[in-house]
Amino acid sequence: MGDIRRRGAVVLGVTGLIAPLTLALGAAPAQAASCTTQAGPYQKQVEKFLGRPVDGRQSSTDCKAIQAFQNKHGIRPNIGYAGPVTWGVMDLMNKQKAVGSKPNKAGTCPTNKGRIACVNLTLQISWIQDGSRLVYGPVPVRTGRDGYETRTGLKKVYWRNIDHVSSIYDVPMPYSQFFDGGQAFHSAAVSMWNPPGSRGCVNMTKTAAKKYWSLLKTGDDVFVYGRKPGT
């Protein structure tokens, strides 16, 4: 959790981003993870997602492709194994893509509030709408992990700080817009599919966070619903 030193201390939400540790002087660089020869339980699904031949057998090329995906999104262990975490990320990406330009097709996010930022925890996407008109998005987001869940319900943006830094973790939280007990939209320098998630905040790419900063203001509504996979 971070804090705002403004009109008293207010406990803030923070990202799951932890600054990487600096290697000790003289320490040897970390070795690349070995590639497994074992086929995982989601081998065929992962092969199809990556555009590999779908045969359910692990090849060295399959492993390298899976490992590259794991490295890109911070999935551990990163040994090229087609396990549930790797497939879970891919499956979520497929579901997000299927939403297209109609994120509020079911009408769950209120359309009678004017401008409102919506967060679908189940699909890990967010967008801004004005009535029923889509203003921006949907974009992938990274919300609270198990035990640090992003709280659901109707909220309002109550404080904004473009250069906020968490005082506890000393982690930058650019373009912070706080909407519930310290939980905020803000930019994070990690993949939006990096498991297991944030510590309550709604992480966004820098591009999305800057756009949200330009479109929202203090007092605007935020509606959070659903449940993040794994929480």
TrEMBL record:
<keyword id="KW-0133">Cell shape</keyword>
<keyword id="KW-0808">Transferase</keyword>
<feature type="active site" description="Proton donor/acceptor">
    <location>
        <position position="186"/>
    </location>
</feature>
<comment type="pathway">
    <text>Cell wall biogenesis; peptidoglycan biosynthesis.</text>
</comment>
<protein>
    <submittedName>
        <fullName>L,D-transpeptidase</fullName>
    </submittedName>
</protein>
<feature type="active site" description="Nucleophile">
    <location>
        <position position="201"/>
    </location>
</feature>
<dbReference type="Pfam" id="PF03734">
    <property type="entry name" value="YkuD"/>
</dbReference>
<feature type="domain" description="L,D-TPase catalytic">
    <location>
        <begin position="115"/>
        <end position="225"/>
    </location>
</feature>
<keyword id="KW-0573">Peptidoglycan synthesis</keyword>
<dbReference type="InterPro" id="IPR050979">
    <property type="entry name" value="LD-transpeptidase"/>
</dbReference>
<keyword id="KW-0961">Cell wall biogenesis/degradation</keyword>
<dbReference type="InterPro" id="IPR005490">
    <property type="entry name" value="LD_TPept_cat_dom"/>
</dbReference>
<keyword id="KW-0732">Signal</keyword>
<feature type="signal peptide">
    <location>
        <begin position="1"/>
        <end position="32"/>
    </location>
</feature>
<dbReference type="InterPro" id="IPR038063">
    <property type="entry name" value="Transpep_catalytic_dom"/>
</dbReference>
